[in-house]
Every structure is written in structure tokens, then in C-alpha cells.
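Fold it.
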Amino acid sequence: MKIGVLSEQSLERLDWIRDQGFGSFQWNRFQDSAIAQQSDSQWKELAQIWDEEIRSRSLTLSAIGAVYCNSLAPSNQEEVRRLMQRGIEVASLLGVKTVSCFSGAVIQTVENRRRGAVSERAFEEFIPDLCRYWKPIAEFAADYGVRIAFENCPQGPYHLPVMGSNLMAFPANWSKVFHEIDQENVGLEWDPSHLICLGVDPVENLKEFGSRVFHFHAKDAELQTTVIARYGRCHPEAARHRFPGLGVANWKAILQVLKEAGYDSDLTIEGWHDPLMKGEREIEGVLGAKRYLESLI
């Protein structure tokens, strides 16, 4: 289990990752790369060149972050399907096990809620729509020996799933989706910070779903109890993300349960969200998180 970070396709960034002693990275913003956008078979040559650059720096590519948007919005579905298929093909070519993304949500429900309308269908009742869209993509991935990992980010205001656009933010939906898609290569890009913001115990959650965790975003969080007591859970300051070790997550227990579940990938530190370690302190936060996780591993 190596410690990594997120990175776009950048040789300068790869040099920094190597020089700071990280062992791996997740390829972020895949959709913006020439490999993703190339219309003909030249993408294979470009992907192999990129792979050589990674290997020459003794780094591991832990996952390809293919596309992060509301995948089920009608205007996004065709492009998300194309990007996922290209990401799966690239992952197979480079020997990468996992392609990650957001599952999305039915956009009409989100829009209705923003307008204040009451939907006649509960949010989770759109799971069949999600599964009909993702099952063929999961089968395509299985043919290439690649796994799909849905990140559990709510994609809603204040780190909560209220008015969010990601059905897989709700742990109660996970078993339903896994059962209905019925593909062993469908799982989670698991992030404990999102669970903490929902009031879910990450350790107990991991005990139930550890075998479905294919990739791991290392990010912490904390609930502002004084704010919640005064203004409630949907106030902007009710919860905030932190770097690992600066929030309330029990990292020692998380890593132990993760190991017991047979996790076979790396810990990818996700920055950019800590309100106290940002801007000029971002690198300090990333490297501090690296040292903290190394002490536990």
C-alpha cells in the first residue's frame, strides 16, 4: 500500500510527486487529456509514452479518474459513456485496475428540488435508471479486466446530499446498486470525509463495504458541533474537510479494517478542501498528511 496524490497528465507534476517521495498517483482530469480526446488509434501510442514516463520515475498509477460530473444528466450521458470506455481501454493497456467516476443522479429530481418542488419519487427510486445506464459500461469494463469505482461524494451544498447529484453518496443505496448491476467489478472510490459529513461512522461503514473498496481518497473531516447546535446540519459551516490527521477520522482503525478487507490499492491524498491548510499552505498540508499516514502504515 503506497501513499499517493492526485495529478493531471503533467511531467512537471510527476517530477514533484517523485521528488517528494510519493509512491503513486491517481490520474485526475483524464477527460482533458489528448489521450481521452484522440479520435483515432493514436491514443494507444500516446498512452504508452505516458506509461513510460510514469515508470521511468518509479511511480505507480493507482487509478484513472475518468470523468466527474452528473453522469446521468441527459446532456452528459453520451460523453460520459465515451470517456469511460476510453478510460477503461487505457487502464487495460497500462495494467491499471480501476477507473473512477461519479455515478450521477437523475437531473429532473435535482432541478425539481432546487425549484422547491416536491418529487413524487424518492431519490433512491431512481436507482433502476442508474443501473440501466451503468450496467453495460460495467460489462464493457469486465471484458477488459477493469473495475469501476464510484466516488461517494454527495456533489451537493455543504458536503451533504441534499440537492446533490450523486446517488452513490448514500451508503443505503450501495447494496441496492451492487445487487441490481450484479457485476463484481463495480465498487467504490471510498472517501471517509464524505461519510463523516453525513454523520456516518467510516469504520463501521468499511466493515460492511470494505470488499467493494477499489480505490481510496485519503481525506478527513470534522463536524462543527457548535455551529450545528445553533444553525443545524445544513448550515455552510456545519462540516468541513481536513487533511488526514486533522479531522476526527480514526485512521488507525480505518487502515486496519481496510487491510482485513483485502484492499489491493493505494492511499491517494486529496487536497484542495482544507479551509485552514490552503493557498500557500496547501503543499504543507499534503506533505503533513503524507507523514501522518506513513507513521500509521
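The CA atoms of residues 191 and 223 lie 16 Å apart.
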